[in-house]
Design a protein that fits this description.
The complex is a heterodimer of chains A (91) and B (393). Chain A has three helices and four strands; from the N terminus they run βααβββα. Chain A has 91 residues and is of the alpha+beta class. Chain B has two domains: 219 residues, 4-Layer Sandwich (Phosphatase 2c, domain 1); 165 residues, no CATH class. Chain B is elongated. The chains are: A alpha+beta (91), B alpha+beta (393).
Chain lengths: 91, 393
């Protein structure tokens, strides 16, 4: 699964580097390096509401402060669902 | 200007002031001449401070203006003798000078009066210049004529450089042989004229223990081939011009740099390639670079260019930021290396579209800022001696 973080001018100035850093740490701490690909993009077309992040087809507006909440409330549950669905398929 | 060959001159100069002086007693003046010639004059006024500064400024300005206008050397020297104010303490009007005249980037004429002889490094070793001695207006002047070759490095200096370390590190100062040996080791690296100048003056300053006992000036001229470079930034004001702007940009000879998020998306689409952004921050304040097959460098826009402008201003001053941008892996350092070191002819393709997100008063960026950045940057590059062409879309 991909988490794509915008690193364009606006998002950069709003703290995309810190968001990237926190996501990297959260992915590492939760042992999800094999399941999540963190990548960058220049512009997601939502400069007004940066830091723009794309995950599972949806756009999110993150800030350094709410990054951890996004990870716990949005990323982790989705991964869990995926894993359950995957196990069912292999049964 | 008509270019006779593919060679051009990279000129870099800098001065160290006599310790405690606000003004430098040495002065450099550069004048262009019709037909692609350049006249560079390094003058060293008697004494230091205000008096020396006035003497050297008048001398270099008169010589460069008169020679560039096609007048002969005798007239220049006589004019200086008649114009320079006479020093009240010493009863003489005096300023030494070195003239480097590059004719059509094919040959150099060097005229020297009492300054340390110009050093020519050819293929990495110092070459003695054939010279004739003549008397002009009662002054003994040495004249040299030499055909230019690619990678020739000429180093002109005031005597403040040779005097470095007198009575301290060296008994008799930094001798010419020592300076030659020091600079010969640097020739192979391919440093720009400005960087060579800075390195020589840093060593001079060190030998003076940070307190120069004389004004010291170095002017380096490096003969090199012309290298074109193209930089694209900003989408065009009218979307319908995307195709036109891209085809003109990518049709140009030389390397291609694309700056800006939306701009690189347009470039990627035009080339039919994907745009892949990296997530590394070699410099925490500069956004990561990206990759598009067929483009030499892809970076973010305003933040990166703002930093390049800072480096450019610093390069023209004391070049103290060199250690940072000369090795940095971030977008700004990489643009700086391409523009300051590699390029001689730069084409700017500037798109005038307004990014609504940048008009946010909470952000330190705006449309007018972006346009000003590009203008200031091209000004700085022109002052580095680059030929700049800017097209707006």
């Amino acid at each position: 699964m991909n988490i794509t973080v915008c690193i364009g001018s606006s998002c950069h100035l709003k703290g995309s580097r810190v968001v990237v850093g926190r996501l990297e740490r959260l992915i590492l701490e939760n042992g999800l390096k094999d399941q999540i690909d963190l990548c960058g993009t220049f512009c997601l077309g939502c400069c007004q509401s940066g830091v723009s992040v794309q995950f599972d087809g949806a756009y999110y507006s993150l800030s350094p402060e709410n990054t951890e909440r996004f990870f716990i409330e949005t990323v982790l549950p989705l991964l869990r669902d995926e894993r359950v669905a995957g196990m069912r398929r292999s049964d | 200007m008509r270019a006779y060959n593919n060679l051009c001159a990279d000129i870099g100069y800098m001065s160290l002031n006599h310790a405690g002086e606000q003004l430098c007693g040495d002065h450099i003046e550069i004048a262009g001449q019709d037909g692609g010639s350049t006249v560079i004059v390094l003058a060293d006024g008697l004494g230091s401070g205000v008096k020396a500064n006035i003497l050297s400024t008048i001398t270099s300005k008169i010589i460069s203006t008169m020679l560039a206008a096609g007048l002969n050397l005798t007239d220049c020297v006589e004019t200086i003798a008649a114009t320079l104010p006479v020093c009240g303490e010493r009863g003489i009007a005096y300023s030494t000078f070195t003239i480097l005249r590059l004719v059509g980037n094919e040959r150099a004429e060097i005229i020297q009066y009492d300054n340390p002889p110009v050093i020519l490094l050819r293929e990495g070793t110092c070459v003695e210049l054939p010279s004739v001695s003549l008397t002009v207006g009662g002054k003994r002047i040495v004249r040299t004529d030499v055909a230019l070759r690619e990678n020739d490095v000429f180093i002109a200096m005031s005597d403040g450089v040779e005097h470095a370390g007198v009575g301290g590190v060296y008994n008799f100062g930094w001798r010419r042989e020592d300076i030659v040996r020091y600079m010969e080791t640097l020739w192979h690296v391919g440093f720009t004229a400005k960087t060579l100048t800075t390195i020589l003056l840093q060593e001079t300053d060190r030998l003076y223990d940070g307190k120069p006992g004389d004004d010291a000036t170095v002017c380096t001229v490096r003969i090199r081939t012309r290298v074109p470079m193209n930089l694209l930034c900003g989408p065009p004001a009218n979307r319908d011009d995307n195709e036109k702007m891209m085809s003109l940009f990518f049709g140009k000879e030389g390397k291609h740099i694309v700056c800006g998020g939306t701009t690189s998306a347009i470039a990627a689409e035009y080339l039919g390639q994907s745009l892949q952004a990296d997530l590394d921050f070699p410099d925490p304040d500069i956004p990561p670079t990206a990759r598009i097959a067929g483009v030499d460098l892809v970076t973010e826009g305003v933040v990166t260019i703002n930093r390049v402008l800072e480096y450019a201003k610093n390069y023209l001053a004391d070049n103290s930021g060199y250690a940072r941008w000369s090795v940095g892996k971030d977008g700004a350092s990489r643009i700086a290396r391409l523009l300051f070191e590699e390029a001689t002819d730069i084409n700017f393709f500037v798109g005038c579209a307004v990014n609504p997100a940048h008009q946010n008063p909470d952000l330190p960026i705006s449309f007018s800022l972006k346009m000003r950045l590009v203008e200031e940057l091209s000004d700085c590059l022109a002052r580095m001696g680059k030929r700049i062409k800017t097209s707006y879309f």
